[in-house]
Design brief:
- The chain is α+β, with helices and mostly antiparallel strands.
- The protein folds into 3 domains: 162 residues, no CATH class; 99 residues, Helix Hairpins; 148 residues, Heat Shock Protein 90, CATH 3.30.565.10.
- Helix content is 52%, strand content 18%.
- The chain contains 10 helices and 12 strands.
- The strands form 3 sheets. A 5-stranded antiparallel beta sheet has the order 1-2-5-3-4. Strands 7-9-10-12-11 form a 5-stranded mixed beta sheet, covered by helices on one side.
- A hairpin with a 3-residue loop joins strand 11 and strand 12.
- Helix 4 runs antiparallel to helix 6.
- The longest helix is centred in the middle third of the chain and has 60 residues.
- It starts with a helix and ends in a 5-residue tail after the last strand.
């Protein structure tokens, strides 16, 4: 994976995480605020109803304003104009709580004018094990000098009550956190794999570069031996010398493929484009490749007119040579390979056709993948690294060309490259 793509993934992932955390935090705060308002409204309704019933019981009138006052997040004061019976107050509180389905523990106290103190009433809980006087009693409940006859109610479990009603929100938050953790772990794995891949590529590149020196030395030695008059007279030694030259050339071609792919992956290659007359170049390539063929036929059908394209000559030659090499390798018996050039209005189509084993539809999807080779069962007579078509595809992409394949098993394959014509302005 290219470095710039990894950077984009990290940046986009980081922005996504920040966005998710912001939205999640906003949503949680908003939900908490809504639940808190709902709780406050329900408590006001309960306490107002209790105050109304107390005023009817005492046959007094309630204050016209500030009847129920929220003095803190979980502490309420109710101002009434008459004395308060604690037993009746508790009964009314429990009844109204039940009517509003407010199942939460609370404690209450009543202000005593004679002693100027808040007299603790009781701790009431919907949980059976927590009922009883003085259970979880608060050490101190504040009183208010601006009120005369009043009672106070405190909800010690308000926070846990609100959280209990937000299980879905907390579950989604937990899932979001897990997704973020998984993303961060995935990015760490990607970066670690990238580092290992870079080490592997560096090793392969260094190894292939080191191969160049002995390959050159072997070539010089083989050329010297092949020109020696004593060896020329010995048919067996001449044949061995030719084998050394052929295998050394093949090894050099494989090393060049690896180096070319390494340059592609590191974006270290530059296209040196120039005007190329395609008919003459292809004819030259076909002549050179025909000399390498020991059997079979390689033919070329040029276009009727001269065709000029704007391309890198070296890479274009390598692309055509790779396609011819593949066509020869995957042919049955004597290979028959046909090159042809067809003109369209703004494009030229380069066809490389063989009559080989063909490629099924499933393998065609992966044909241009790196290191991918079409399976031939237990037969391994076709040699290579699976880099040829990967290189071809990348060079076509770099030039802005299109490449496609049509093939049927047993009937051969035809590769087509669509190249724009080059017209000087």
């Amino acid at each position: 994976m290219p470095n710039h793509l990894i950077r984009r993934i990290i940046i986009l992932g980081g922005l996504s995480i920040i966005g998710i955390l912001f939205i999640q935090s906003y949503w949680l705060l908003k939900t908490w605020d809504i639940k808190d308002k709902e709780f406050d409204q329900t408590v006001h309704i309960v306490l107002r109803n209790v105050a109304t019933r107390m005023s009817k019981f005492n046959k007094t009138q309630l204050p016209k304003s500030n009847l129920v006052q929220r003095r803190s997040s979980n502490y309420y004061a109710v101002n009434i104009n008459s004395a308060i019976d604690a037993n009746i107050l508790e009964q009314y509180l429990l009844t109204e709580m039940d009517k509003q389905s407010l199942n939460i523990a609370f404690e209450y106290a009543v202000y005593d004018c004679s002693s100027d103190e808040l007299v603790y009433g009781n701790y009431c809980s919907p949980e059976p094990g927590e009922k009883g006087y003085n259970i979880k009693r608060s050490a101190n409940l504040p009183k208010f000098n601006d009120l005369i006859y009043y009672f106070v109610v405190r909800f010690p479990k308000r926070e846990s009550f609100l959280l209990a009603n937000r299980n879905m929100a907390l579950t989604l938050t937990l899932l979001s956190v897990l997704a973020i953790v998984f993303f961060l772990y995935s990015m760490w794995v990607i970066l670690e794999q990238k580092r290992m891949s870079e080490l592997q590529k560096d090793f392969i590149n260094n190894m292939t570069h080191e191969f160049k020196t002995p390959i050159s030395s072997i070539k010089i030695a083989a050329d010297f031996l092949s020109n020696d008059p004593h060896l020329k007279s010995n048919e067996r030694l001449s044949r061995y010398t030719q084998i050394i030259r052929d295998q050394n050339q093949r090894l050099n071609q494989q090393v060049e493929k690896v180096l070319n792919v390494a340059r592609l992956e590191r974006d270290r290659f530059e296209l040196k484009k120039e005007d190329i007359e395609l008919n003459s170049l292809l004819r030259e390539i076909v002549n050179n490749e025909s000399l390498k063929m020991k059997q079979g036929r390689l033919s070329f059908l040029p276009s009727e007119n001269k065709v000029t394209v704007y391309a890198d000559k070296l890479h274009l030659v390598n692309v055509v040579a790779n396609m011819i090499d593949n066509a020869i390798k995957y042919s049955i018996n004597d290979p028959i390979v046909e090159l042809s050039l067809n003109e369209e209005q703004n494009h030229v189509l380069l066809h490389v056709k063989d009559h080989g084993i063909g490629i099924d539809r499933e393998n065609q999807k992966k044909l241009f993948d790196k290191f991918y080779r079409v399976s031939t069962g237990n037969v391994h007579d076709v040699k290579g690294f699976g880099l040829g078509l990967f290189y071809v595809k990348n060079i076509c992409n770099a030039h802005g060309w299109q490449i496609g394949v049509q093939s049927e098993p047993g009937k051969g394959s035809e590769f087509t490259i669509t190249i724009p014509k080059h017209t000087e302005k």
